[in-house]
Structures are given as structure tokens and as C-alpha cells.
Design a protein that fits this description.
Layout (H helix, E strand, L loop, with lengths): L1 H9 L1 H17 L2 E3 L26 E5 L7 E4 L5 E3 L1 E5 L6 E5 L9 E3 L4 E5 L3 E5 L9 E3 L2 E4 L4 E4 L6 H5 L1 E2 L1
Parallel strand pairs: 1-2, 2-5, 3-6, 4-7, 5-8, 6-9, 7-10, 8-11, 9-12, 11-13
Amino acid sequence: MYLLREFVKRNELYLFFAASFLIFNQAFGSTKTWTGLAGDGQWATAANWSGGVLPVAVDDILLDNSSAIANYAVILPNVAIVVKSITINPDPGRTIQLTLPNSNITEPALTITGPGYGLLINDGGIFENASGLTSGESLVIGDSLRINNGGRYIHRTKASHAINIARLLS
């Protein structure tokens, strides 16, 4: 115990900065970018994300072609997902599709808290809501939804959509 106390005393500043860094990252999040390195198209595979770490509630999600240079599709898992924002931003002439699958019957299956554009779909980007819910809300967007020219939102579920339409910005 004495040695541990001495170590802590001599390294207090280093320990303080290390703890502060970890708390800052958890509290304020970061931008998680899709790499697709696992090759399975599954959101829930950590190897598909920058840093090899799954997104958490405070993260901004970026689906672009910075790491995955071809067209690709990402399938959300059959559990509830909460993130701060999602931007789908393919390179010109490319497509990136994010799908909430029919096998997901969680309510809500995807919650995007914001602030700002919770879901931003740019040219070539597609969000397909094919949730298996027959009522209720499969997608909850806390702030706003923006679909730019060439972006697409496909609603293939019986779940509610009225609240999200109200959040749609032009």
C-alpha cells in the first residue's frame, strides 16, 4: 500500500491528465467514421469503426468515403442505438446506405439526440427505415433532419413518421 501511495503522489499530475482525457472523451464524444475494415457491413462490429471502437451516445457518426472508397451499406443492429448525430456524405458518384432492418422491432430502434442536424443525408446518401415495428416510433430525432439534393430517406415501416417529418429542414 505504501508503494502505491508513493507512486500516486509522484505521478499525480500525469494521473490527473489521463483521467481528465478519459472523462472528456466520454462526456463530449468524438466523431466516429466508418472504415468498413471488418467487411461485414454491420454497425455492431467494432472493427468497422475508426479506432476499432463502437459508437456511443455522445458520438457524431460520419459515413463517408474517407476510408471506404467504394459504395457501401451499413446495417444497424437489432438493439436500440443512441448517437448524437449521423451524417451520410458519399463522394460524388458514390452511394452509402444506412438501413434500419425489418428484424429490429425495438422502440425506438435509433435515437439521434443532436443538437444540430441529427440526421444529415447528402447527395448519394440513403437512410432506409425498414423497422419491423407495427406501431410506435422506430426513429427518434431530437433536433432536425436534413435531406440535401440527391439524398434519400426511404420509409418502409408501419412505425410512425409524422414527428420526423416535422423535424425536416430544407
